[in-house]
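Protocol step 4 of 6.
Sequence for Sulfide:quinone oxidoreductase, mitochondrial (Caenorhabditis nigoni) entered exactly as in the expression construct, tag removed. Do not edit the line below.
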Amino acid sequence: MVLLPFSARNTSETNDWNGSKLKDDSKHYKLLVVGGGAGGLGAASKFARKLPRGSVGIIEPHEDHYYQPGFTLVGGGLMTLRETTRKQEKLIPSGAKWIRNEVVLFTPTQNMVTLDGGEDISYDYMVVAMGAHLRFDKIKGALEALETPGVCSNYSPFHVEKHYREVMNFQGGNAIYTYPNGPIKCAGAPQKACYITDSILRQRGVRENAHMIYATSLDKIFGVENYVKPLEEVAQEKDIDVRTRRNLIEIDTSKNSATFQLLDENGAATEDTEKIEYSLLHIGPPCSAPKALRKSPFADKTGFMDVDDGTLQSKKFPNVFGVGDCMNTPNAKTAASVSSHLKTLDRNLTFAMLGKKPYFKYDGYASCPLVVSKNRVILAEFNSKGPLETTPLNQGKPAYWAFLLKKYFMPALYWNGLIRGYWNGPATIRKFSRLVDSKKRQGVL
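Step 5 output, structure tokens:
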């Protein structure tokens, strides 16, 4: 642990970025973390151990914290929602202050945020970790449809258990799983839900009554080429109708109808549409940055936080960094990517606090454990350039060991490592496994 020197720490009379003294330290923090999800808690935990007690503030409005990677298993009856839920107050790191509110306005020129209710909080440094918001509202009729029979989504803690109930009550017809045309959290989640549903329906003896459709806006089944063929084989074995270049734009519950806009080869919308009647419809919602961030000086034209995709430092405000899904970095938006974000943030924010230029680079790592049945997983690990796998095993092949990692090891790693700021991703393990594999190939081991 690097303990920051006195000059980089908070004191009873704190200076702001411009050197002016603040009179009310209770509304000023050396480090302000906006968001109490995986990235926010991980960042706060790291720096609460480096800075004096009370120097770190965490702004987070929600009482419950969810292990979102577990929602796929909850929706498949393999985990309970309760197992994925913890009370936020029990996760706040010792020495940090939980500000149970939300930011409605960023004023980085004054190192200030405004909370709902009008209170201003100032900071010396800030980490924006607001995550990505589910935007069911961008699909006409989706919000209303989620409250009707047959329509659900594993993305929402309020509807994930409904998915399992719907699958268990399903008797026949079209079961449709959608992937949106736009940013999405955990890009593999819609097809994971589809595969698990196939397994459940087979166990129930009603699979022959189902026409299962995976409708994706992409031009192929998955965005990382290395895993396309294995997933195509899974879909073919399960008799899943994969329809590409289709974007869900409307749901009509009076007719149990889902309308898809057809996309051209470049992913642009056309005037052509396709309507499909459903008995079961799982929505993969598009996502956006939270409203306050979209309207802030930090945002790019897409609304996500504009950061250097190597250092994760704001391009406009050097005392501000990002972490997690709210950024415009090219990595997939997964909890696994947060671990490598935190490794980068830990070093670079420390450098900034010491008056040094951040130079450590995020490697773009992300992971998506693709659950293809109730006991097999394709452990996809990658960055924007392609596979970035940790083990010497064939991770493109559905495996039971990978399922055990997904169901048992990864939740424990999340609760005890990631959000407590101890887990920095598998880069070190990857280097070791590659060394061992190299030695084996050379006949040394």
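Step 6, annotate. Residues 369-442 form one domain.
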